[in-house]
TrEMBL record:
Keywords assigned: Isomerase
Residue ranges of the region described as Disordered: 219-256
Sequence ranges of Low complexity compositional bias: 240-256
Keyword Isomerase: yes
Catalytic residue positions: 22, 97
Protein name in UniProt: Putative phosphoglycerate mutase
Enzyme Commission numbers on file: 5.4.2.12
A Pfam family annotated for this UniProt entry: His_Phos_1
UniProt GO MF annotations: phosphatase activity; phosphoglycerate mutase activity
Stored NCBIfam families: MSMEG_4193 (TIGR03848)
Amino acid sequence: MAIQPKEPVPERGAATLLLVRHGLTAVTGSTLAGWTPGIHLDERGRAQAKDAAERLAGLDLAAIVSSPLERCRETAEVIAQARSGGPDAVVDDRFGECRYGDWTGRPLKELAAEPLWRVVQAHPSAARFPGGESLAETSARAVAAVRDWNDRLLAEHRDPVYLVCSHGDVIKAIVADALGLHLDQFQRIQADPCSITAIRYTPTRAFLLRLNDVGESAAGLAPAPGEASGDATVGGGAGAPAPGAARETGAGESPR
């Protein structure tokens, strides 16, 4: 009896994740907003969201997912509303900001004097915020959410592309995981307001396609005098200022 050849197993497709950080708010880069309610995009942030929507206009998105916080929901809604017949934005709490606990709402310059600040900078995997969660817990829930969304969308689409609007530290943690980096290395990654970071998850590995893409401008590539600090801004910072605009100095940055 002839042995019948086995039917080839269909190859699993690839899911492409677009990570978009929320646009600017009145406190971005100066205060650790965390889960503070009522933090909305300001005029600059709304303009950034519209620009991101234009840059993404040519992509067919299988889903638009957002952190539950207003600044992310508003950014995701601008992107969703700019699309004709695309998906509405949905919320997934696992993409919410790190729960900074007692640090929430405090100025970053003040927090930089706390002993825990050096742990957050040099050994973030060991950092737990008083009254809040650890950065390791933030990373674990966000990465688990990515895995869930990849599985869900790959069950419905061959090679889905989807967007998640989240926060600086959350995006950095997801990127570190995709690159196989220990969480202690995630402060080497930057995610500016309304930047686009793209990761393609294939059956064998993840590929980082773009990182902190803010468009065609070269703003921010060369630091202003005194701004090249070795500290990362907890929460993500305010990014490069628009040409001619004054920059608000946050922790981890020296005043001009």
